[in-house]
Amino acid sequence: MRTLAFLLTFTSLVFAQEGRFVPTGKLTTPRESHAAILLKDGRVLITGGIQQDQLNKTTYLATAELYDPVTGTFRPTGSMLQPHYLHVSTLLADGRVLIAGGFAQGNAPPPAELYDPASGSFSPAGIPTAKESIAGVHAILLPTGKVLLTGLAGLYDPANQSFTSLGKIDSNSGAVLLPDGRLVATSYDSVSLYDLKSDSVTLLDKKPLGSSWLHRTTTLLSDGSVLIAGGDWDYGEQTTWEALVYNPRDRSTKTTGILLIARDSHRSILLPGGQVLVIDGYNSDGYSSGQCCIAEAELYDPVDGQFHAAALDIDTRQGHTATLLQDGRVLVTGGRGRQSASLYIPQLRATSAASPAPALAPGSLASLFGSQLASVAESANLAALPISLGGSGVKIRDGSGTEYWARLLFASPTQLNFEMPPAVQPGGLTITVSGSGGSLAATGGMLTPVAPALFTFDGRTPAAYALRYEPDGKTTVVSTSDPIALDSRPVYLTLYATGLRNRTSLATVQCEIGGVNVPIDYAGPEGSGIPGLDQVNLRLPASLRGCGIVDLTLTVDGFRSNVVTLEFANP
After folding, report:
1. pTM for the predicted model, two decimal places
2. Deepest of 24, 101, 220, 426, by most Cβ within 10 A of its Cβ?
Protein backbone atom coordinates (compact mmCIF):
# COMPACT_ATOMS: atom_id res chain seq x y z
CA MET A 1 0.00 0.00 0.00
CA ARG A 2 1.31 3.43 -0.89
CA THR A 3 2.16 5.65 2.06
CA LEU A 4 -0.08 8.52 3.05
CA ALA A 5 2.74 11.03 2.50
CA PHE A 6 2.90 9.92 -1.14
CA LEU A 7 -0.83 10.33 -1.58
CA LEU A 8 -1.08 13.79 -0.03
CA THR A 9 0.02 16.73 -2.14
CA PHE A 10 -1.29 19.87 -0.45
CA THR A 11 1.09 22.60 0.80
CA SER A 12 1.19 23.12 4.55
CA LEU A 13 0.09 26.25 6.41
CA VAL A 14 1.52 27.89 9.50
CA PHE A 15 -0.69 26.74 12.37
CA ALA A 16 0.05 29.87 14.43
CA GLN A 17 -1.84 31.97 11.91
CA GLU A 18 -5.13 30.20 12.52
CA GLY A 19 -7.85 32.37 14.06
CA ARG A 20 -5.87 35.52 13.20
CA PHE A 21 -5.77 38.40 10.77
CA VAL A 22 -2.67 38.60 8.58
CA PRO A 23 -1.69 41.33 6.10
CA THR A 24 -2.11 40.71 2.38
CA GLY A 25 -0.91 43.28 -0.14
CA LYS A 26 -2.27 46.82 -0.39
CA LEU A 27 -5.09 48.38 -2.36
CA THR A 28 -3.92 50.49 -5.28
CA THR A 29 -5.49 53.46 -3.49
CA PRO A 30 -7.15 54.08 -0.11
CA ARG A 31 -10.90 53.69 -0.39
CA GLU A 32 -14.03 53.50 1.74
CA SER A 33 -17.72 52.99 0.96
CA HIS A 34 -16.59 50.81 -1.93
CA ALA A 35 -17.91 47.40 -3.03
CA ALA A 36 -16.25 44.00 -3.33
CA ILE A 37 -17.49 40.81 -4.98
CA LEU A 38 -16.01 37.32 -5.42
CA LEU A 39 -15.64 36.35 -9.09
CA LYS A 40 -16.08 32.83 -10.41
CA ASP A 41 -12.33 32.37 -10.86
CA GLY A 42 -11.68 33.14 -7.17
CA ARG A 43 -10.42 36.71 -7.61
CA VAL A 44 -12.17 39.65 -5.94
CA LEU A 45 -13.38 42.72 -7.84
CA ILE A 46 -13.19 45.96 -5.82
CA THR A 47 -14.95 49.01 -7.23
CA GLY A 48 -15.34 52.70 -6.54
CA GLY A 49 -15.80 54.30 -3.16
CA ILE A 50 -14.42 57.56 -1.88
CA GLN A 51 -11.07 58.74 -0.60
CA GLN A 52 -10.73 61.42 2.08
CA ASP A 53 -7.47 63.19 2.89
CA GLN A 54 -6.45 64.73 6.22
CA LEU A 55 -8.26 67.95 5.30
CA ASN A 56 -11.47 65.96 4.69
CA LYS A 57 -11.26 66.64 0.98
CA THR A 58 -13.26 63.93 -0.77
CA THR A 59 -12.23 62.25 -4.02
CA TYR A 60 -14.91 60.18 -5.74
CA LEU A 61 -13.45 57.02 -7.27
CA ALA A 62 -14.28 55.40 -10.57
CA THR A 63 -11.26 53.11 -10.40
CA ALA A 64 -11.48 49.35 -9.88
CA GLU A 65 -8.97 46.68 -8.97
CA LEU A 66 -8.65 42.91 -8.64
CA TYR A 67 -7.33 40.90 -5.72
CA ASP A 68 -5.62 37.60 -6.51
CA PRO A 69 -5.72 35.26 -3.47
CA VAL A 70 -2.96 33.08 -4.96
CA THR A 71 -0.39 35.89 -5.05
CA GLY A 72 -1.98 38.06 -2.34
CA THR A 73 -1.72 41.14 -4.55
CA PHE A 74 -3.96 43.86 -5.98
CA ARG A 75 -3.74 45.20 -9.50
CA PRO A 76 -5.78 47.77 -11.43
CA THR A 77 -8.44 46.75 -13.91
CA GLY A 78 -10.61 48.92 -16.16
CA SER A 79 -12.28 51.97 -14.60
CA MET A 80 -16.02 52.42 -14.26
CA LEU A 81 -17.77 54.87 -16.56
CA GLN A 82 -18.24 57.22 -13.60
CA PRO A 83 -17.64 57.19 -9.83
CA HIS A 84 -19.84 55.10 -7.55
CA TYR A 85 -19.91 54.93 -3.74
CA LEU A 86 -22.25 53.22 -1.27
CA HIS A 87 -23.19 51.02 -4.21
CA VAL A 88 -23.63 47.24 -4.50
CA SER A 89 -22.04 44.70 -6.81
CA THR A 90 -23.64 41.39 -7.82
CA LEU A 91 -22.13 38.40 -9.59
CA LEU A 92 -24.45 37.38 -12.42
CA ALA A 93 -24.95 33.82 -13.63
CA ASP A 94 -22.76 34.43 -16.70
CA GLY A 95 -19.82 35.69 -14.61
CA ARG A 96 -20.29 39.40 -15.25
CA VAL A 97 -20.83 41.83 -12.36
CA LEU A 98 -23.68 44.32 -12.00
CA ILE A 99 -22.80 47.65 -10.34
CA ALA A 100 -25.91 49.48 -9.11
CA GLY A 101 -27.30 51.82 -6.47
CA GLY A 102 -25.40 54.25 -4.33
CA PHE A 103 -24.29 57.69 -5.42
CA ALA A 104 -21.97 59.40 -7.86
CA GLN A 105 -20.15 62.67 -7.35
CA GLY A 106 -22.53 65.34 -6.09
CA ASN A 107 -24.93 62.71 -4.68
CA ALA A 108 -26.45 62.13 -8.11
CA PRO A 109 -27.91 58.64 -8.77
CA PRO A 110 -25.48 56.96 -11.19
CA PRO A 111 -26.60 54.63 -13.98
CA ALA A 112 -25.86 50.95 -13.52
CA GLU A 113 -22.82 49.32 -15.10
CA LEU A 114 -21.64 45.83 -16.06
CA TYR A 115 -18.11 44.53 -15.53
CA ASP A 116 -16.80 41.81 -17.84
CA PRO A 117 -13.91 39.86 -16.24
CA ALA A 118 -12.84 38.55 -19.65
CA SER A 119 -12.10 42.02 -21.02
CA GLY A 120 -11.59 43.84 -17.73
CA SER A 121 -13.92 46.60 -18.86
CA PHE A 122 -17.17 48.26 -17.79
CA SER A 123 -20.17 49.01 -20.01
CA PRO A 124 -23.64 50.54 -19.48
CA ALA A 125 -26.19 48.18 -17.92
CA GLY A 126 -29.36 50.09 -18.62
CA ILE A 127 -30.88 53.08 -16.88
CA PRO A 128 -32.56 52.38 -13.55
CA THR A 129 -35.01 54.83 -12.08
CA ALA A 130 -33.75 57.07 -9.30
CA LYS A 131 -35.54 54.80 -6.82
CA GLU A 132 -33.04 52.00 -7.42
CA SER A 133 -30.00 54.30 -7.33
CA ILE A 134 -29.86 55.18 -3.65
CA ALA A 135 -27.85 54.27 -0.58
CA GLY A 136 -29.28 51.41 1.44
CA VAL A 137 -29.82 49.29 -1.66
CA HIS A 138 -29.13 45.57 -1.24
CA ALA A 139 -28.75 43.27 -4.23
CA ILE A 140 -30.14 39.73 -4.27
CA LEU A 141 -29.42 37.35 -7.15
CA LEU A 142 -32.61 35.34 -7.72
CA PRO A 143 -32.76 31.75 -9.03
CA THR A 144 -34.17 33.16 -12.29
CA GLY A 145 -30.88 34.99 -12.90
CA LYS A 146 -32.49 38.38 -12.33
CA VAL A 147 -31.27 40.74 -9.60
CA LEU A 148 -33.57 42.20 -6.97
CA LEU A 149 -32.48 45.65 -5.79
CA THR A 150 -34.16 46.37 -2.49
CA GLY A 151 -34.99 49.74 -0.99
CA LEU A 152 -37.72 51.03 -3.27
CA ALA A 153 -37.42 47.77 -5.08
CA GLY A 154 -36.38 47.23 -8.66
CA LEU A 155 -35.70 44.10 -10.68
CA TYR A 156 -32.79 43.95 -13.15
CA ASP A 157 -32.98 41.51 -16.05
CA PRO A 158 -29.50 40.89 -17.51
CA ALA A 159 -30.99 39.27 -20.61
CA ASN A 160 -32.31 42.57 -21.92
CA GLN A 161 -30.50 44.96 -19.53
CA SER A 162 -33.74 46.42 -18.22
CA PHE A 163 -35.04 47.55 -14.83
CA THR A 164 -38.59 47.06 -13.58
CA SER A 165 -40.06 48.73 -10.50
CA LEU A 166 -41.67 46.27 -8.09
CA GLY A 167 -42.75 48.25 -5.04
CA LYS A 168 -41.36 49.11 -1.66
CA ILE A 169 -39.07 46.81 0.34
CA ASP A 170 -38.01 48.33 3.63
CA SER A 171 -34.40 47.16 3.86
CA ASN A 172 -32.06 49.98 4.81
CA SER A 173 -30.17 47.64 7.16
CA GLY A 174 -30.01 44.44 5.13
CA ALA A 175 -31.75 41.73 3.14
CA VAL A 176 -31.18 37.99 2.73
CA LEU A 177 -32.80 35.42 0.46
CA LEU A 178 -34.08 32.28 2.18
CA PRO A 179 -33.68 28.82 0.62
CA ASP A 180 -37.44 28.70 -0.06
CA GLY A 181 -37.30 31.90 -2.13
CA ARG A 182 -38.74 34.28 0.47
CA LEU A 183 -36.87 37.44 1.46
CA VAL A 184 -36.07 38.73 4.96
CA ALA A 185 -35.36 42.47 5.08
CA THR A 186 -34.43 44.60 8.06
CA SER A 187 -34.84 48.32 8.58
CA TYR A 188 -33.95 50.59 11.47
CA ASP A 189 -37.05 49.57 13.48
CA SER A 190 -38.52 46.38 11.95
CA VAL A 191 -37.91 43.06 10.25
CA SER A 192 -40.11 42.02 7.32
CA LEU A 193 -40.76 38.82 5.40
CA TYR A 194 -41.61 39.04 1.70
CA ASP A 195 -42.84 36.55 -0.88
CA LEU A 196 -41.17 36.94 -4.29
CA LYS A 197 -43.28 35.40 -7.02
CA SER A 198 -43.86 36.22 -10.67
CA ASP A 199 -41.56 39.26 -10.50
CA SER A 200 -43.66 40.76 -7.72
CA VAL A 201 -43.23 41.50 -4.02
CA THR A 202 -45.80 40.65 -1.34
CA LEU A 203 -45.36 41.56 2.34
CA LEU A 204 -46.06 38.49 4.49
CA ASP A 205 -44.97 39.66 7.92
CA LYS A 206 -43.61 42.77 9.61
CA LYS A 207 -42.44 42.85 13.20
CA PRO A 208 -41.10 45.77 15.24
CA LEU A 209 -37.62 45.18 16.62
CA GLY A 210 -38.31 46.94 19.88
CA SER A 211 -35.61 49.56 19.36
CA SER A 212 -34.57 51.65 16.38
CA TRP A 213 -31.02 51.32 15.11
CA LEU A 214 -29.40 52.20 11.78
CA HIS A 215 -26.49 50.43 10.09
CA ARG A 216 -27.18 46.97 11.48
CA THR A 217 -25.93 43.82 9.75
CA THR A 218 -28.28 41.06 8.62
CA THR A 219 -26.86 37.54 8.22
CA LEU A 220 -28.59 34.31 7.18
CA LEU A 221 -27.60 31.52 9.59
CA SER A 222 -27.19 27.86 8.70
CA ASP A 223 -30.50 26.91 10.35
CA GLY A 224 -32.47 29.37 8.19
CA SER A 225 -32.87 32.01 10.90
CA VAL A 226 -31.45 35.53 10.56
CA LEU A 227 -28.98 37.29 12.86
CA ILE A 228 -29.47 41.07 13.21
CA ALA A 229 -26.54 42.69 15.00
CA GLY A 230 -25.29 46.09 16.10
CA GLY A 231 -26.17 49.48 14.65
CA ASP A 232 -26.39 53.07 15.80
CA TRP A 233 -28.89 55.68 16.80
CA ASP A 234 -28.84 59.19 15.32
CA TYR A 235 -26.11 58.44 12.77
CA GLY A 236 -23.35 57.30 15.08
CA GLU A 237 -24.18 59.27 18.21
CA GLN A 238 -24.76 56.00 20.04
CA THR A 239 -23.78 52.50 18.98
CA THR A 240 -25.38 49.35 20.35
CA TRP A 241 -24.44 45.88 21.61
CA GLU A 242 -27.88 44.59 20.64
CA ALA A 243 -28.35 41.37 18.66
CA LEU A 244 -31.59 39.64 17.63
CA VAL A 245 -32.54 36.45 15.81
CA TYR A 246 -35.56 36.31 13.48
CA ASN A 247 -37.01 32.89 12.69
CA PRO A 248 -38.92 33.10 9.39
CA ARG A 249 -40.54 29.72 9.90
CA ASP A 250 -42.64 30.72 12.91
CA ARG A 251 -42.06 34.47 12.32
CA SER A 252 -40.71 35.03 15.81
CA THR A 253 -38.02 37.45 16.97
CA LYS A 254 -35.93 36.93 20.09
CA THR A 255 -32.89 38.48 21.67
CA THR A 256 -29.63 36.57 21.65
CA GLY A 257 -26.23 37.21 23.22
CA ILE A 258 -24.94 40.78 23.11
CA LEU A 259 -21.97 41.97 21.09
CA LEU A 260 -18.74 42.29 23.04
CA ILE A 261 -18.22 45.77 21.54
CA ALA A 262 -21.01 48.15 20.53
CA ARG A 263 -20.54 48.90 16.84
CA ASP A 264 -22.02 50.07 13.57
CA SER A 265 -20.69 50.20 9.99
CA HIS A 266 -19.23 46.75 10.68
CA ARG A 267 -19.32 43.71 8.41
CA SER A 268 -20.70 40.25 9.19
CA ILE A 269 -19.71 37.09 7.32
CA LEU A 270 -21.16 33.58 7.72
CA LEU A 271 -18.18 31.24 7.97
CA PRO A 272 -18.14 27.61 6.86
CA GLY A 273 -19.41 25.70 9.89
CA GLY A 274 -22.09 28.19 10.86
CA GLN A 275 -20.36 30.82 13.00
CA VAL A 276 -20.65 34.52 12.07
CA LEU A 277 -17.55 36.71 11.95
CA VAL A 278 -18.28 40.34 12.94
CA ILE A 279 -15.49 42.62 11.71
CA ASP A 280 -14.36 46.08 12.88
CA GLY A 281 -16.61 49.13 12.47
CA TYR A 282 -17.38 52.28 14.47
CA ASN A 283 -17.83 52.64 18.23
CA SER A 284 -19.34 55.86 19.60
CA ASP A 285 -17.49 55.57 22.94
CA GLY A 286 -14.29 56.63 21.22
CA TYR A 287 -15.73 59.84 19.79
CA SER A 288 -14.26 62.17 22.39
CA SER A 289 -10.77 60.72 21.95
CA GLY A 290 -11.02 60.49 18.17
CA GLN A 291 -10.63 56.69 18.32
CA CYS A 292 -13.96 55.69 16.90
CA CYS A 293 -12.83 53.11 14.35
CA ILE A 294 -12.13 49.71 15.87
CA ALA A 295 -10.05 46.70 14.84
CA GLU A 296 -11.66 44.07 17.07
CA ALA A 297 -13.51 41.12 15.53
CA GLU A 298 -15.81 38.68 17.27
CA LEU A 299 -17.59 35.42 16.49
CA TYR A 300 -21.27 34.64 16.99
CA ASP A 301 -21.86 30.96 17.75
CA PRO A 302 -25.45 29.86 17.06
CA VAL A 303 -24.96 26.79 19.27
CA ASP A 304 -24.76 28.82 22.49
CA GLY A 305 -26.23 32.05 21.11
CA GLN A 306 -23.24 34.06 22.34
CA PHE A 307 -20.53 36.30 20.91
CA HIS A 308 -16.90 35.37 21.55
CA ALA A 309 -13.66 37.29 21.03
CA ALA A 310 -12.07 36.41 17.69
CA ALA A 311 -8.94 38.39 16.86
CA LEU A 312 -7.51 41.86 16.25
CA ASP A 313 -7.45 43.09 12.68
CA ILE A 314 -4.18 44.62 11.46
CA ASP A 315 -5.90 48.02 11.11
CA THR A 316 -8.93 49.91 12.38
CA ARG A 317 -11.67 50.10 9.75
CA GLN A 318 -14.97 51.81 9.01
CA GLY A 319 -16.59 51.72 5.57
CA HIS A 320 -14.61 48.59 4.67
CA THR A 321 -15.58 45.41 2.83
CA ALA A 322 -15.36 41.74 3.82
CA THR A 323 -15.46 38.92 1.27
CA LEU A 324 -15.48 35.16 1.90
CA LEU A 325 -12.93 33.57 -0.45
CA GLN A 326 -13.31 30.17 -2.06
CA ASP A 327 -10.74 28.65 0.29
CA GLY A 328 -12.55 29.79 3.46
CA ARG A 329 -10.42 32.82 4.33
CA VAL A 330 -12.01 36.27 4.59
CA LEU A 331 -10.56 39.25 2.69
CA VAL A 332 -11.02 42.62 4.45
CA THR A 333 -10.20 45.76 2.46
CA GLY A 334 -9.92 49.49 2.99
CA GLY A 335 -12.00 51.64 5.27
CA ARG A 336 -11.74 55.30 6.17
CA GLY A 337 -8.23 56.46 5.24
CA ARG A 338 -7.06 52.88 4.80
CA GLN A 339 -5.14 51.30 1.92
CA SER A 340 -4.38 48.13 3.84
CA ALA A 341 -5.99 44.73 3.38
CA SER A 342 -6.04 41.70 5.65
CA LEU A 343 -6.99 38.05 5.58
CA TYR A 344 -8.84 36.38 8.43
CA ILE A 345 -7.80 32.73 8.73
CA PRO A 346 -10.54 30.93 10.69
CA GLN A 347 -9.67 28.52 13.44
CA LEU A 348 -10.17 24.85 12.66
CA ARG A 349 -13.42 23.58 14.20
CA ALA A 350 -14.72 20.04 14.69
CA THR A 351 -18.48 19.44 14.80
CA SER A 352 -21.02 16.75 14.17
CA ALA A 353 -21.69 16.34 10.45
CA ALA A 354 -25.38 16.78 11.22
CA SER A 355 -25.31 19.98 13.29
CA PRO A 356 -22.94 22.82 14.27
CA ALA A 357 -22.65 21.41 17.80
CA PRO A 358 -19.25 19.97 18.86
CA ALA A 359 -20.87 16.58 19.40
CA LEU A 360 -18.59 13.64 18.55
CA ALA A 361 -18.91 9.92 19.27
CA PRO A 362 -17.10 6.77 18.13
CA GLY A 363 -18.43 5.67 14.74
CA SER A 364 -20.30 8.96 14.16
CA LEU A 365 -20.07 11.27 11.16
CA ALA A 366 -18.08 14.43 11.85
CA SER A 367 -16.98 17.57 10.02
CA LEU A 368 -13.97 19.84 10.18
CA PHE A 369 -14.38 23.47 9.09
CA GLY A 370 -11.60 25.94 8.34
CA SER A 371 -9.66 27.30 5.38
CA GLN A 372 -7.34 25.73 2.82
CA LEU A 373 -8.12 22.27 4.17
CA ALA A 374 -7.88 20.50 0.81
CA SER A 375 -6.49 21.31 -2.61
CA VAL A 376 -9.70 20.40 -4.49
CA ALA A 377 -13.29 19.40 -3.76
CA GLU A 378 -13.69 15.63 -3.95
CA SER A 379 -16.29 13.08 -2.84
CA ALA A 380 -15.47 9.49 -1.90
CA ASN A 381 -16.96 6.21 -2.97
CA LEU A 382 -19.10 5.32 0.05
CA ALA A 383 -18.45 1.63 -0.51
CA ALA A 384 -14.71 2.07 0.10
CA LEU A 385 -13.90 5.20 2.06
CA PRO A 386 -10.27 6.38 1.69
CA ILE A 387 -7.99 7.97 4.28
CA SER A 388 -6.82 10.58 1.77
CA LEU A 389 -9.13 12.85 -0.20
CA GLY A 390 -8.60 16.17 -1.94
CA GLY A 391 -4.93 15.99 -1.01
CA SER A 392 -5.52 15.80 2.75
CA GLY A 393 -6.05 13.36 5.59
CA VAL A 394 -7.41 13.51 9.13
CA LYS A 395 -5.51 11.99 12.05
CA ILE A 396 -7.23 11.34 15.40
CA ARG A 397 -5.24 10.99 18.62
CA ASP A 398 -7.22 9.92 21.69
CA GLY A 399 -6.41 10.36 25.36
CA SER A 400 -4.44 7.11 25.50
CA GLY A 401 -2.09 8.40 22.83
CA THR A 402 -3.36 5.98 20.17
CA GLU A 403 -3.56 7.49 16.68
CA TYR A 404 -6.02 6.64 13.91
CA TRP A 405 -6.46 7.82 10.33
CA ALA A 406 -10.11 8.70 9.76
CA ARG A 407 -11.97 7.51 6.68
CA LEU A 408 -13.09 10.50 4.57
CA LEU A 409 -16.41 11.05 2.80
CA PHE A 410 -15.87 14.54 1.37
CA ALA A 411 -13.09 17.08 1.08
CA SER A 412 -13.04 20.72 0.01
CA PRO A 413 -10.93 23.78 0.87
CA THR A 414 -13.39 24.71 3.65
CA GLN A 415 -14.75 21.37 4.89
CA LEU A 416 -13.72 17.77 5.55
CA ASN A 417 -16.38 15.14 6.35
CA PHE A 418 -15.17 11.94 7.97
CA GLU A 419 -16.15 8.94 10.03
CA MET A 420 -14.90 9.08 13.60
CA PRO A 421 -13.02 5.77 13.96
CA PRO A 422 -15.19 3.34 15.97
CA ALA A 423 -12.24 2.23 18.10
CA VAL A 424 -11.37 5.74 19.37
CA GLN A 425 -11.76 5.92 23.14
CA PRO A 426 -14.07 8.56 24.68
CA GLY A 427 -12.32 11.53 26.27
CA GLY A 428 -10.06 14.29 25.01
CA LEU A 429 -9.00 14.24 21.36
CA THR A 430 -6.51 15.97 19.11
CA ILE A 431 -7.61 16.17 15.48
CA THR A 432 -5.01 17.08 12.88
CA VAL A 433 -5.39 17.81 9.17
CA SER A 434 -2.27 16.70 7.32
CA GLY A 435 -0.80 17.11 3.85
CA SER A 436 2.45 16.21 2.13
CA GLY A 437 4.11 19.31 3.62
CA GLY A 438 3.19 18.32 7.17
CA SER A 439 0.39 19.31 9.52
CA LEU A 440 -1.96 21.97 8.18
CA ALA A 441 -3.88 22.63 11.38
CA ALA A 442 -4.97 20.98 14.59
CA THR A 443 -7.87 21.32 16.98
CA GLY A 444 -9.06 19.73 20.18
CA GLY A 445 -12.28 17.86 20.81
CA MET A 446 -14.16 15.77 23.33
CA LEU A 447 -15.53 12.34 22.48
CA THR A 448 -18.55 10.97 24.33
CA PRO A 449 -20.00 7.43 23.99
CA VAL A 450 -23.04 8.86 22.21
CA ALA A 451 -23.58 12.28 20.62
CA PRO A 452 -26.99 12.31 18.92
CA ALA A 453 -27.42 14.78 16.06
CA LEU A 454 -30.26 14.99 13.52
CA PHE A 455 -29.55 15.69 9.87
CA THR A 456 -31.57 18.51 8.29
CA PHE A 457 -32.37 19.87 4.84
CA ASP A 458 -32.06 23.55 5.77
CA GLY A 459 -30.88 23.61 9.36
CA ARG A 460 -34.35 23.17 10.91
CA THR A 461 -36.38 20.78 8.69
CA PRO A 462 -35.29 17.21 9.54
CA ALA A 463 -33.87 14.95 6.87
CA ALA A 464 -36.69 12.47 7.24
CA TYR A 465 -39.66 10.86 5.57
CA ALA A 466 -43.03 9.66 6.77
CA LEU A 467 -45.27 6.83 5.60
CA ARG A 468 -49.06 6.81 6.02
CA TYR A 469 -50.64 3.36 6.13
CA GLU A 470 -53.93 3.28 4.22
CA PRO A 471 -56.86 1.01 5.16
CA ASP A 472 -56.13 -1.21 2.13
CA GLY A 473 -52.59 -1.88 3.38
CA LYS A 474 -50.86 0.41 0.90
CA THR A 475 -48.55 3.21 2.03
CA THR A 476 -48.34 6.84 1.01
CA VAL A 477 -45.17 8.91 1.36
CA VAL A 478 -45.73 12.08 3.41
CA SER A 479 -43.36 15.04 3.00
CA THR A 480 -41.90 16.38 6.23
CA SER A 481 -41.17 19.72 4.51
CA ASP A 482 -44.91 20.44 4.33
CA PRO A 483 -47.55 20.43 7.09
CA ILE A 484 -48.28 16.82 8.09
CA ALA A 485 -51.96 15.87 8.25
CA LEU A 486 -52.82 13.35 10.96
CA ASP A 487 -56.06 11.39 11.23
CA SER A 488 -57.07 7.86 12.14
CA ARG A 489 -54.57 6.40 9.66
CA PRO A 490 -51.19 5.64 11.31
CA VAL A 491 -48.17 7.71 10.18
CA TYR A 492 -44.65 6.46 10.86
CA LEU A 493 -41.66 8.82 10.82
CA THR A 494 -38.05 7.93 9.97
CA LEU A 495 -35.38 10.40 11.08
CA TYR A 496 -31.79 10.29 9.83
CA ALA A 497 -29.14 10.93 12.47
CA THR A 498 -25.63 10.13 13.60
CA GLY A 499 -23.88 9.51 16.91
CA LEU A 500 -26.48 7.27 18.59
CA ARG A 501 -25.56 3.72 17.57
CA ASN A 502 -23.63 3.15 20.80
CA ARG A 503 -26.71 3.69 22.98
CA THR A 504 -26.94 1.47 26.04
CA SER A 505 -30.53 0.39 25.29
CA LEU A 506 -33.58 1.42 23.28
CA ALA A 507 -35.23 2.54 26.52
CA THR A 508 -32.64 5.32 26.90
CA VAL A 509 -33.69 6.89 23.57
CA GLN A 510 -36.41 9.48 23.99
CA CYS A 511 -38.07 11.72 21.42
CA GLU A 512 -40.01 14.83 22.36
CA ILE A 513 -42.26 16.43 19.72
CA GLY A 514 -44.14 19.55 20.69
CA GLY A 515 -43.84 18.65 24.36
CA VAL A 516 -45.18 15.11 23.75
CA ASN A 517 -42.94 12.13 24.57
CA VAL A 518 -43.17 9.74 21.62
CA PRO A 519 -42.20 6.05 21.99
CA ILE A 520 -39.27 4.88 19.82
CA ASP A 521 -39.56 1.72 17.71
CA TYR A 522 -35.94 1.62 16.50
CA ALA A 523 -32.73 3.63 16.99
CA GLY A 524 -29.47 2.44 15.48
CA PRO A 525 -27.49 2.06 12.24
CA GLU A 526 -29.41 3.03 9.12
CA GLY A 527 -28.80 -0.28 7.41
CA SER A 528 -27.76 0.69 3.88
CA GLY A 529 -24.08 0.48 4.73
CA ILE A 530 -23.33 4.21 4.75
CA PRO A 531 -20.68 4.58 7.48
CA GLY A 532 -21.83 6.48 10.54
CA LEU A 533 -25.43 7.01 9.37
CA ASP A 534 -28.11 6.17 11.96
CA GLN A 535 -31.88 6.30 11.91
CA VAL A 536 -34.79 6.56 14.34
CA ASN A 537 -38.27 5.12 13.68
CA LEU A 538 -41.41 6.17 15.54
CA ARG A 539 -45.16 6.54 15.15
CA LEU A 540 -46.57 10.06 15.20
CA PRO A 541 -49.33 10.30 17.84
CA ALA A 542 -52.71 11.66 16.77
CA SER A 543 -52.52 14.17 19.64
CA LEU A 544 -50.15 16.26 17.47
CA ARG A 545 -52.93 16.92 14.97
CA GLY A 546 -53.26 20.65 14.28
CA CYS A 547 -50.39 21.64 16.59
CA GLY A 548 -48.75 23.82 13.93
CA ILE A 549 -44.97 24.25 14.06
CA VAL A 550 -43.37 22.35 16.95
CA ASP A 551 -39.87 21.41 18.06
CA LEU A 552 -38.47 17.88 17.91
CA THR A 553 -35.47 16.68 19.91
CA LEU A 554 -33.83 13.36 20.70
CA THR A 555 -32.22 12.43 24.00
CA VAL A 556 -29.94 9.38 24.05
CA ASP A 557 -28.37 8.19 27.30
CA GLY A 558 -28.94 11.69 28.66
CA PHE A 559 -27.30 13.46 25.69
CA ARG A 560 -29.60 15.85 23.83
CA SER A 561 -29.62 16.39 20.04
CA ASN A 562 -30.02 19.58 18.04
CA VAL A 563 -33.55 20.95 17.71
CA VAL A 564 -35.50 20.49 14.47
CA THR A 565 -39.08 21.44 13.64
CA LEU A 566 -42.12 19.72 12.16
CA GLU A 567 -45.42 21.30 11.19
CA PHE A 568 -48.77 19.59 11.71
CA ALA A 569 -51.77 20.69 9.68
CA ASN A 570 -55.13 21.66 11.08
CA PRO A 571 -57.83 18.99 10.66
Report:
1. 0.92
2. 101
